[in-house]
């Protein structure tokens, strides 16, 4: 039957080295046996050393991508990545509200993994007040959770409190990712708070590696992919945690400096799970 196969959408920028952004999302959709589509919002010229140039696409073109996808496909879940300014966020919010593209997973890309803020205040305000209230699931990292809540997260109790604060913004389900600190750390603890009040921790070893590009993209993209296949939110999040951890644990030799995680290793996880 037409459009029976699970289809999932990423609303994100292109990362030219393939390690993050739209490319990491599409890698993830593929290994989770879903058909990935994209609304391209920006393009980055980057490699493992860093980002060297970036351009945002015209808003009218972004709107057109939403329109033509809605005319043809049955998109069952969507996710957002880096949305760099307030006008772009407003455009995405209006388009998502106009078309039925399924539950939305918001990866609120506000900071780097090391805490450097990426968004100007106007974009941060738009993300917090306009985009996050649309989220079925939000996946902030440690630093993003601090910025969104104004909390200093220095304990698991504060991590729990931050998740509740983010849920109060209108987000249904929240996963607050734990702190990554290369000194004297053996474990990372991610906290999950569901819409019905269910809560649980997901813990995994801390891996000392420079190949972590695309970690947040892969986590959020897996959640969206699993939702598109009909998984409940808790199961989707657990699978996403395992997929992402597997991809980090098996380093891939790509790039001189900050490289990608290993989606092939995560695909092996898929084969073990499904077989």
UniProtKB/TrEMBL annotation:
Keywords per UniProt: ATP-binding, Kinase, Nucleotide-binding, Thiamine biosynthesis, Transferase
EC number: 2.7.1.49, 2.7.4.7
Keyword ATP-binding in annotation: yes
SUPFAM superfamilies (alphabetical): Ribokinase-like (SSF53613)
One Gene Ontology biological process: thiamine biosynthetic process
Domain Pyridoxamine kinase/Phosphomethylpyrimidine kinase: start-end pairs: 15-262
Single GO term (MF): hydroxymethylpyrimidine kinase activity
Family matches, as Pfam families: Phos_pyr_kin (PF08543)
Reaction catalyzed: 4-amino-2-methyl-5-(phosphooxymethyl)pyrimidine + ATP = 4-amino-2-methyl-5-(diphosphooxymethyl)pyrimidine + ADP; 4-amino-5-hydroxymethyl-2-methylpyrimidine + ATP = 4-amino-2-methyl-5-(phosphooxymethyl)pyrimidine + ADP + H(+)
CDD domains, per database record: HMPP_kinase
Top-rank lineage group of the source organism: Bacteria
GO CC annotations, alphabetized: cytosol
InterPro entries cross-referenced by the UniProt entry: HMP/HMP-P_kinase_dom, PM/HMP-P_kinase-1, Ribokinase-like
Pathway annotation from the record: Cofactor biosynthesis; thiamine diphosphate biosynthesis; 4-amino-2-methyl-5-diphosphomethylpyrimidine from 5-amino-1-(5-phospho-D-ribosyl)imidazole: step 3/3; Cofactor biosynthesis; thiamine diphosphate biosynthesis; 4-amino-2-methyl-5-diphosphomethylpyrimidine from 5-amino-1-(5-phospho-D-ribosyl)imidazole: step 2/3
Similarity-based family: Belongs to the ThiD family.
NCBIfam families linked to this entry: HMP-P_kinase (TIGR00097)
Name of the molecule in the record: Hydroxymethylpyrimidine/phosphomethylpyrimidine kinase
Source species: Leuconostoc litchii
Gene: thiD
